[in-house]
């Protein structure tokens, strides 16, 4: 079972002057996959505090994936990507690219997302938008591909190049995708 | 009113042996939006000189957005992205991704663009291509989403997560985008 | 004639317990373009060893382009992108973006690719997937645009902004692309 941590980044949410909707929505959506949210927190838009929680969830709680929500835009205090970049050991640029590429089909403002994703130890960290609508859209885009990544990161699967007699890593989805394109 | 700075990066342009077309074209296109170009300059492909102008336009002139044109390709002296990365405080990867994603529909050579975008203080810095055709195409791709980003960066708008009863950040464009897709 | 180096990154391949398919496939595909592979090697997933070979191929052998295959996923020992980032002088983000954007049309798992591309001196370095299927797909996506980039990097071509009377950099492909879109 995949273990999840959720960090809501919001000045107003952390002071209790706004109800956090993004965080609970993440918990709800991933629970439909059977994933269990182990820890959640609301922190202000302070880089050091975001970093501290990311490290705690990855190193101490040892969740498989941390989702952040909020703090990825152009506002002067938006620093969630900076906190994430400061603590990950390896980047996973394709996840944020995929979110933006799909979101761009809905609104050109999607290009303003500064979200990043990366790996710290055995924990995947992914920045999601702050708005409930953005959270839902982005999770829908990335969840189909994410389970495999988490399995590989945990060492639960063989490496892709071994499947030399089959279609390689992208084999399973090939037929469906080909059908869609026709 | 949005205040703009334009930096043309070109060895030949700076020596006067080539007429700068990219810079004046940027000034013309943004003026159609009512944006005012406060400062323009032509500098050679020298990283230190590009950095110096970027810092001057952001910190001293305090324009809202700086567009560079030129120096983003594979030529040995192309260093505009490196100069930009050296001075921005926060990255805005989605803007360059959007330019390349759209340009790829026109030519596969678009993947050779090494353009980046980022934020220094309250100034957005965006690398555009050197060719007038590339400048025009890229500005057309990004301008629809850019005004909102500049507003947020200047603190002229509420944060997205607040619009809890509406469609969130992407609300305004939703209907139009949905219509286009049908 | 374009000179190529190929580095297969694989723990099992380097110990001889798995036959390398990705490396020979790269050699075969680029030979169809008349490109000559000067050097090939299989190294384990050790960052220092990958870096050493990248530097050797770029600085000593002076190939025009190095393709790596393998080590770009989420497995704990996958560090090919980290080795590449450590040795390149300039990033070329559009190449990896293009590979992922096209691969995403085949499978959502493509977003898990952590591949990067960049330039060291006059050598372009590109991370390809480990699976033969992934190698073939990604090379098909990027080879159409790559020759021009290599020419520019070697100083064999004028800069794009000079073509002021034509269509600029994207001129050549314009008609074909427009035709395809109709």
Description:
The structure is a homotrimer of 182-residue chains. Chain A has one domain (3-181): Molybdenum Cofactor Biosythetic Enzyme, Chain A (3-Layer(aba) Sandwich). The first copy, chain A, is 44% helix and 18% strand. The longest helix of chain A has 22 residues, at 132-153. Chain A is globular, with a radius of gyration of 17 Å. Chain A has a six-stranded mixed sheet with strand order 2-1-3-6-5-4, with helices on both faces. By secondary structure, chain A is of the alpha/beta class. In chain A, a hairpin with a 2-residue loop joins strand 5 (117-120) and strand 6. Chain A has helices at 11-14, 22-31, 47-60, 80-87, 93-103, 132-153, 171-181; strands spanning 3-9, 36-43, 65-69, 90-91, 117-120, 123-128. The interface between A and B is large, with 40 and 37 residues.
CATH topology assignment of chain A = Molybdenum Cofactor Biosythetic Enzyme, Chain A
Q: Which protein chains are joined by the largest interface, and how many residues does each one contribute? A: A-B, 40 and 37 residues
How far apart lie the N and C ends of chain A? 36 Å
**Spatial strand sequence of the major β-sheet of chain A:** 2-1-3-6-5-4
Oligomer: homotrimer
As a whole number of angstroms, the C-alpha radius of gyration of chain A is 17 Å
Concise summary:
With 182 residues, chain A is an alpha/beta fold.
Keyphrases for this structure?
six-stranded mixed β-sheet; Molybdenum Cofactor Biosythetic Enzyme, Chain A; disordered C terminus; homotrimer; 182 residues; alpha/beta
